[in-house]
Write a structure and sequence with these properties.
The protein is α/β, with parallel strands linked by helices. It has a single domain, classed as Alpha/Beta hydrolase fold, catalytic domain (Rossmann fold, 3-Layer(aba) Sandwich), CATH 3.40.50.1820. The chain has nine helices and eight strands. The protein has an eight-stranded mixed beta sheet with strand order 1-2-4-3-5-6-7-8, sandwiched between helices. A hairpin with a 2-residue loop joins β1 and β2.
Length: about 300
């Protein structure tokens, strides 16, 4: 049995069936699996801050690399099906990101469902980008990044900032983005069970996020797939995994970006599953992130200072 098969077997056996739980119980069960990061020394420092906007406080964690480079700040949105996940859950991954790219990373504790409906989480990302640009971190622009539901939010925030004009976003990084509430693609049929993240779980996430709107036509507030005009967006790196039910919707979004004239690097990992990128010490994930760091460095070398 190879490393991927062993990891999938472990995840399939050990991950709780969140879809049978109430949202609060599901969140607690998922977040109880978070373990402290083992790579604390990858960064020079971290700082927990809050971004105050419209009477709410958005928690963020700022990661400063040992060897900072004059590159854009990364604003990062964690995954978790819009229901769970946290700054703590992606702490180790954000440390690696800062170390390998030389970018200051700002991880965002955005509002979650079902307490907050769309576009609350996306708007939290936009507010954090504004905060970055208005303070001591301002400089060479912003990379918007996220995985799974965070990929949805990062892509959506890039669109909002484009529409507002003079966007500071110079790149977007979308890892297996969670985009299609209709779950209509082929990979949803062929990868619905047996690969850690299941069709019933994904449907549960969408129902929790959308409530009575589940089953209705998607809107731009819910998914960037519903946005007609994708022109003028920043260059994108899109990662997909062949054993992931979300594979085809990520690929479709990458193709739509390209058709709109956006520069896209599409990295497809045919033998991997949803979430593989952020598992500490998992060999295929480590290999994929090495390519990702190289892609990010290449994009930031090409990016022009938005000022």
């Amino acid at each position: 049995m190879d490393e991927t098969s062993r990891m999938l077997a472990l995840l399939n056996e050990s991950f709780p069936d969140l879809s049978r739980m109430a949202p609060a119980e599901a969140r607690a069960a998922a977040d109880a699996r978070i373990r402290p990061a083992g790579n604390i020394d990858d960064v020079a420092s971290t700082e927990d801050r809050t971004v105050d906007v419209d009477g709410r406080r958005i928690p963020v964690r700022v990661y400063r690399p040992h060897v900072p480079r004059p590159v854009p700040v990364t604003v990062y949105a964690h995954g978790g099906g819009f229901l769970h996940g946290s700054i703590e859950g992606h702490d180790g991954f954000c440390r690696r990101w800062a170390k390998e790219t030389g970018s200051v990373v700002v991880s965002v504790g955005y509002r979650l469902a079902p307490e907050a409906a769309p576009p609350a989480a996306r708007d939290d990302l936009v507010a954090v980008v504004d905060w970055v640009q208005g303070g001591e971190l301002a400089g060479a622009g912003v990379i918007l990044a996220g995985d799974s539901s965070g990929g949805n939010l990062a892509a959506g925030a890039a669109i909002v900032l484009r529409d507002r004009g003079a966007s500071p976003v110079v790149a977007q990084v979308l890892a297996y983005p969670f985009l299609d509430p209709a779950m209509a693609t082929r990979s949803h049929r062929t990868r619905a069970t047996g690969y850690f993240v299941t069709g019933p779980l994904l449907a549960y996430y969408w129902r929790t996020l959308l409530g009575d709107r589940f089953g209705e036509d998607a809107t731009p507030e819910v998914t960037p797939l519903a946005v007609e005009d994708l022109g003028g967006l920043p260059p994108a790196i899109v990662l997909t995994a062949g054993l992931d039910p979300l594979c085809d919707e990520g690929t479709a979004y990458a193709h739509r970006l390209r058709a709109a004239g956006v520069d896209v690097v599409l990295r497809h990992h045919p033998d991997q599953f949803h979430g593989f990128l952020t598992i500490p010490g998992y060999g295929p994930g480590v290999s994929a992130t090495q390519t990702l760091w190289s892609d990010i460095r290449h994009l930031t070398e090409l990016a022009k200072d938005p000022r």
